[in-house]
What does this fold into?
Amino acid sequence: MSEAFLSVEAVSKTFAPRLSLGERIAAALGAPPAKRPLQAVREVSLEIRRGETLGLVGESGCGKSTLGRMIAGIAAPSAGAVSLDGDPVMRGGRKATTRVQTVFQDPFASLDPRMKVGDAIAEGPVAHGLVAKPQARAYVAGWLDRCGLDPAMADRWPHQFSGGQRQRVAIARALAMQPDLLVCDEPVASLDVSIQAQILNLLMDLRRDLGLTCLFVSHDISIVRHVSDRVAVMYLGRIVELGPAASVLARPAHPYSLGLLESAPRLSLDGRSTFRPIPGDVPSPLAPPPGCAFAPRCSLAQDACRAAPPPLSEVAPERFSACLRADVLTGRPPGQASHMSGA
Amino acid sequence: MSPPVLDVVDLTTEFALRGGGAARAVDGVSFSLARGEIVGLVGESGSGKSVTGFSLMGLIDPPGRVAGGSVRLNGAELAGMDAEGLRARRGREIAMIFQDPVATLNPLLTVGAQMRMALAAHARTPRRAADDRCAAALARVGIPAARDRLAAYPHEFSGGMRQRVAIAIALLHAPSVVIADEPTTALDVSVQAQILVEMRALAAETGLSLIWISHDLAVVSGFASRILVMYAGRVVEQGPAEAVLRAPRHPYTRGLIDSLPAAAKPGEPLRQIPGGAPSLGALPPGCAFAPRCPRAAGACRAAPPVETREGARAWRCLFPLEAGA
It folds into this structure.
């Protein structure tokens, strides 16, 4: 049951700065670098189990999409490796499997405006021999129907679809490749609330019926809580907390997860506000603090937190936190003397 | 009770369509705003909530026009007022904040220069005094080292700080009404919460009245004292936030609340509203929500329902939900 289906091993992603000719000459002559590389993802290890949905949550710039793209085989890791069932997802900088497919946030950008949606859906499966060309039409019709669209829509152009319908097309196109793992990168972030529910229901139905494994990347905690079995919280390139969605989001073991939960607005029926902000801003990923990246905003931070990034370690069965003071949050017997009362 | 700061009656805004006819983006919107009050204007894309904001500001350009209704700001009628009169009030009595501060701030000018321009639009102020006022405005919205930041360019601020600059500019002349059009939608939740908390304190301290336009019921629920729900250009329900959210009378409001993931147990299907929003150019003759509504009957399709008022609440529905449901 708990075998690793997809495994991410010590993956990092660094974006090198784009240097002008002058800067490259200066660097060759030994001048100190004017621009620093941006480390979007730092030594992340995790696994996704067969059949589960892992929610990946964090704020903009935390590296969640970059991690999602490396898992999807779209971006090559700078270090570390991603493998599915023991086989690498990428080989030689190119995607090496069709078993992982992605649904992106913006269905307007992910469909070629000059290609009929039926052709866009058929393109991949035909090229990879999943279906013979003569049968492609029926095959596409089946997937459109499965995704709640009229099969006759195969002959329409992307601009003839609403946002919600386009996202259905994008889902149909990803599923037509018969993936085992579906990476959903903010699939409902640009949709209206009433349409959002339709797409989330569709994704949950398909996942169950097709036995899909899912990585669900989102900034929205309430959505992640709804669709995920386990959840990983990212902050400035690292996973700071990982565990079963229900327990992590009910009782976080990292101050950042707690802050994220408390600052997320929830529907309040008594008119009282339900959000409490995290003080300060996310530090620049170009110059992250030496220790825990959250320490400058954290009320629990001690000197040890500022020395080195705390590792992600097990704080309770199935629960992992990269906080030296997780015991304060979980209320577990403290490893060392603690004068803080439960948060 | 003191008279409302802003009183809107039957505001209607139309956009001429190619080939004749007009789309009503705002259709008979009425509400009033008390001093220090925060009203949440909620709706999905295309519901007319932003156009309502632009109409109140007198910022509708052809082919659009405010086709009818009355907007009284501090007692003065804005509908039909000439451009000069509007310009004298815009920024000084009524101001607007937009979703994208990158689009509202000039990337080539320092923040200080832009703020001094906004100041000079309504008041001649010596340079030193102007800088003092600008720095104070920045400090009030939580920008640290405000005086030094006047010399910084917009790109030197983070997204949240940039939106704070836009808010500071809107508040420069201490307007009585600020229309905020999804100002925190592009921001992270932790920063959004900071700004919401600051804006609420500001409204309580200074008596500023806010119209907070948002697609996010959850944001508005803990922030606004009154809620207006828009659908296809019409306010389909309005009332005190608590009452509207606890026991909505309009089926669309109910549908919006129920479709939030928080309304269902994790993993269970969400209650979705079937179908999609109608096009404003081709609205059904009756209630615009009828094609998606579980309660709709023949009468709903005949003519748009008129507003029913009951105390502080109002709705446009022939078959409203039970008061205590």
Summary: Residues 9 and 81 of chain A are 5 Å apart (CA to CA). Residues 334-343 of chain A have pLDDT under 50 and may be disordered. The radius of gyration of chain A is 22 Å.
